[in-house]
Amino acid sequence: MRGGAGAGYLRPVDWLKVNRDNWDDRTRVHAASDFYDLAGFRAGACTLRPFEPAEVGDVTGRTLLHLQCHMGQDTLSWARRGARVTGLDFSAPAVGTARSLAEDTGLADRARFVVSDVHAAREALAGERFDVVYTGVGALVWLPDLVRWARVVADSLVDGGFLYLVEFHPLADLLGDDGRTLQDDYFRADGETYDHPHTYTDGPELTRTRSVQWQHGLGDVVTALAGAGLRVDFLRERETTLFRRYPVLERTGTGEYRFPPGHPRLPMLYSLRATRSG
């Protein structure tokens, strides 16, 4: 259930523990789910969205850091395209699953996985810098402080390296369950506590059901990155999303979902690239 703005807000040490416990539990469910289809990934499936490799470009021989990598499928998808990858996540069970996937897919020589909170990435990686920092969909809502996050990103890049971010668009979070009416406030500053018995995949109920999430406006993301000294190369808003988030959405020929013809459209995803200048 959703609390009101700021309802159930927890002290910093509490939200981190609550969210880590929640994601440790989610990993148990996700690893066995049809949604993540680990067997299909082991057989060669790629989990990157079609536009991602096109926007990032050739990664052969480049170093790539994936922050908040969960079970590592996107991370290893970049490894399959030739990158030398490092995945970082605060959930030890998720990292354990990622390491197993790397072994099972023959990618262990090009992939490593590290257990760490994203804010401590620099310490966990001993100050190593990368050609690309990648962050995939559904990551930023788990972070209370984008300014701190952006500094971690900037400090993790070599001169001329870049962040590539793909995220759910914050406007899409404002719709009610019918996908037709605005229900929420765009300008939410405080974390909100949720208590849901299920994660977003198929599978059994969770045993650790609470989480704390933050809404970040698009301006907050861009301003945090600019403040960390990164130059935004592009910001592209997209009318499609990855799953049927609202019943009104229709599946496209490429397997994505969009509002039907004649329905007012909102951006559902966005992609952003920002470079560290030398």
Automatic annotation (TrEMBL):
Source domain of life: Bacteria
Example GO BP: methylation
Keywords: Methyltransferase, Transferase
Domain Methyltransferase: 65-161
InterPro entries: Methyltransf_25, SAM-dependent_MTases_sf
Gene Ontology molecular function, alphabetical: methyltransferase activity
Name of this protein: Class I SAM-dependent methyltransferase
Species annotation: Saccharothrix syringae (Nocardiopsis syringae)
